[in-house]
């Protein structure tokens, strides 16, 4: 592995996500990278593998790059160009393949490094930033913020989770409030608990204002 590979990866994702505003911008990747590093250090995981997986986790995203999604072509070629050995490439691609939340078909990563990366990605979907990302995503996809007549769908499988269109408030019930329990590491569980409390207080305030209570 080349010694400045982390900097190369930072440059690579900065370019790739330059014009991306749907919730997968460069700063999302940067936050996941920093959080993943923190978790990996606390959990005694292989920090470099976690960092590379975090930096490359969205470069073959199903929504952004459907044609490279299956083979993880972008991540693979970046790693090959930077002389990463075959075994490490497979390990990183496996982590990327396991990372996403897809309702009840979501998987628990097989390696400790995968667990750290998945936790970091999911932490960025909750808390103050998670709230902002959810509404940014909703606006980007022409969704209404809230409609009391549209109820959340619980227990969705991958197919339904990827295809159904809902309100942004429902997304809190369909994904965001489920994430704390799904955290793999103790380090992430603690951070998630605090972020979840903050989101619940936010939703309570939202509903009070909606009902004209205050
Ligand atoms: P991730 O980077 O966590 O894999 P996704 O690709 O699922 O995230 O989504 C990107 C961001 O948009 C996340 O913050 C996620 O919670 C949010 N998001 C995804 N689907 C919806 C939705 N239907 N409504 C509102 N926000 C959403
Ligand atoms: Ni992500």
Instruction: Please trace the helix and strand order, writing H or E for each element.
Output: HHHHHHHHHHHH
Instruction: Write down how many β-strands occur, each being a DSSP E stretch of 2 or more residues.
Output: 0
Spatial gap, N to C terminus: 58 Å
Tally of helical segments: 12
Low-confidence stretches: none
Largest beta sheet, briefly? none
Shape: globular
Q: Which labels suit this protein?
A:
214 residues, mainly alpha, globular, binds adenosine-5'-diphosphate, binds nickel (II) ion
What is this structure's SSE topology?
Layout (H helix, E strand, L loop, with lengths): L4 H12 L9 H17 L4 H10 L9 H4 L3 H9 L4 H13 L13 H12 L3 H14 L17 H6 L4 H7 L4 H4 L3 H25 L4
The structure holds adenosine-5'-diphosphate and nickel (II) ion (NI).
Can you tell me about this structure?
- With 214 residues, the protein is an all-alpha fold.
- Helices cover 62% and strands 0% of the residues.
- It is built from twelve helices and no strands.
- It has helices at 5-16, 26-42, 47-56, 66-69, 73-81, 86-98, 112-123, 127-140, 158-163, 168-174, 179-182, 186-210.
- Bound molecules: adenosine-5'-diphosphate and nickel (II) ion.
- Nickel (II) ion binds next to α2.
How would you summarize what this structure contains?
With 214 residues, the protein is mainly alpha-helical. The chain has helices at residues 5-16, 26-42, 47-56, 66-69, 73-81, 86-98, 112-123, 127-140, 158-163, 168-174, 179-182, 186-210.
């Amino acid at each position: 592995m080349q010694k400045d590979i982390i900097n190369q990866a930072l440059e690579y994702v900065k370019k790739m996500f330059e014009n991306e505003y749907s919730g997968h911008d460069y700063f999302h990747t940067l936050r996941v990278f920093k959080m993943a590093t923190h978790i990996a250090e606390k959990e005694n995981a292989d920090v470099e593998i976690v960092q590379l997986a975090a930096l490359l986790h969205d470069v073959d995203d199903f929504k952004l790059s459907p044609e490279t999604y299956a083979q993880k072509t972008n991540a693979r070629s970046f790693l090959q160009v930077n002389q990463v050995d075959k075994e490490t490439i497979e390990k990183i691609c496996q982590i990327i393949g396991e990372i996403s939340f897809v309702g009840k078909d979501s998987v628990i990563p097989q390696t400790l490094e995968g667990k750290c990366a998945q936790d970091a990605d999911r932490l960025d979907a909750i808390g103050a930033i998670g709230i902002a990302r959810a509404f940014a995503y909703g606006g980007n996809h022409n969704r209404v913020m809230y409609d009391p007549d549209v109820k959340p769908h619980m227990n969705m499988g991958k197919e339904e989770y990827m295809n159904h269109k809902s309100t942004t408030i429902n997304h809190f019930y369909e994904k965001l409030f489920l994430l704390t329990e799904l955290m793999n590491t103790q380090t992430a569980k603690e951070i998630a608990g605090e972020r979840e409390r903050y989101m619940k207080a936010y939703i309570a305030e939202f509903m009070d204002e909606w009902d004209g209570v205050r």
